[in-house]
Amino acid sequence: MGKENxxxxxIECRISGVSLLHAICLAFxxxxxxxxxxxxxxxxxxxxxxxxxxxxxxxLREKAIKGDVDAQYQMGxxxxxxxxxxxxxxxxxxxxxxxxxxxxxxxxxxMGFMYANGFAVTKSDTQSLYWYEKAANHGDPVAQNNxxxxxxQGIGNQAHSRxxxxxxxxxxxAAEQGLVTAQARLGFIYMIGDDIAKNGDEAFTWMSKAARQxxxxxxxxxxxxxxxxxxxxxxxxxxxxxYQAAANAGSPMGEFNIAHLYQEGLGVAKDSALALNxxxxAAxxxMAEAWMRLASASRRGEGTVKNQAEAIRLxxxxxxxxxxxxxxDLGLVYMNGDGVPxxxxxxxxxxxxxxxxxxxxxQFLLFKFYLDRYDKNGSLGAExxxxxxxxxxxxxxxxxxxxxNSMKDCKVCKTxxxxxxxxxxxxxxxDVKQARDYVVEWKTRFSKRPRxxxxxx
Length: 457
Prior knowledge:
- There is one protein chain.
- It is built from 25 helices and no strands.
- By secondary structure, the protein is mainly α.
- The longest helix is centred in the C-terminal third of the chain and has 19 residues.
- The two termini are 22 Å apart.
């Protein structure tokens, strides 16, 4: 793909986000810890990591039996987390339910979590939504955050049920109460313009609040805002400060972005060797895109000795870890026989990996790959390809997906439309239907993936 295309995709690999499911679990665990340390009743002792003695547990149990909702919640929390007792979700549910039915917000949130994960109940998005809504309306920030996540993700991971406006409403309520997870997500949505207009002021406001609370991804993202001058005056020194803070706290994204500053000489003296050192740190910490940058450096001899064989080895690592850029570039390497034996099978495999992750450029390229391999001399034409090629159905699938995925910036739409018109006339109705069925299957599967703003770290 080369440096130019990597720069175009920079927003994908240099800002950091969190899997929504992971964030929901984190929010619950954070809330559990908070709940265990703030019993409102004087005698309802907080649950510690040490095993509670039976006397204290019995005292809490007696209060719960008598209808003390806070004690009921504490009992449920003990059994849900296994702190002080053996973990038992059935027992947790037994205590959470009456407290929740009495309108105790923390217990309502816990019920939402139980249904979201299918703990001691049949997993139900509807019931999870019901309990989160009750708790959110009772002012619980964790419920507000988790409710926002459901609307952000789409109820049941269904893209058609996604409601960004409702998500923003509840994220904001939770963020205003100081919940760092909500602040981070709210800032991120405004930063990237996730189905809304980008807003630098909002992005900076919420990202800085989350970063100053020590939120790892937000520290790296705040540095990015300073680097880009989005919502704040451009300041490379501040960008570096926040990248270093993130890196010192264990963020591969912070390390990666420090490397980028040195690679490009942004606010620092350009230093390819130092950039490589930071890319290696991020790579060693599991960042696929850092392996991709190391591969590119070896391929071009930037900060290191030019070594095509080493570049291919590093590309494979990055591609196998999920780097779309590496999968795309590795496909090109094998397609063209660039430093390796030409191998269409391996090229197709790598293109398929990137296309399956939703990369529009590779989806269209894959269609062209099938067409060009059939019509090597350019004498047969697209009509012949769609009529006779064994790859016509796959080509149609990726062509249609590429078109539908690029509506916001549809660079391939006109070209795709012309090829699809030829295909619709040349292919049998049965083959067209099969190709379109594959598109539906891919979109359904793709929409159910957890929403991520960055490749997995």
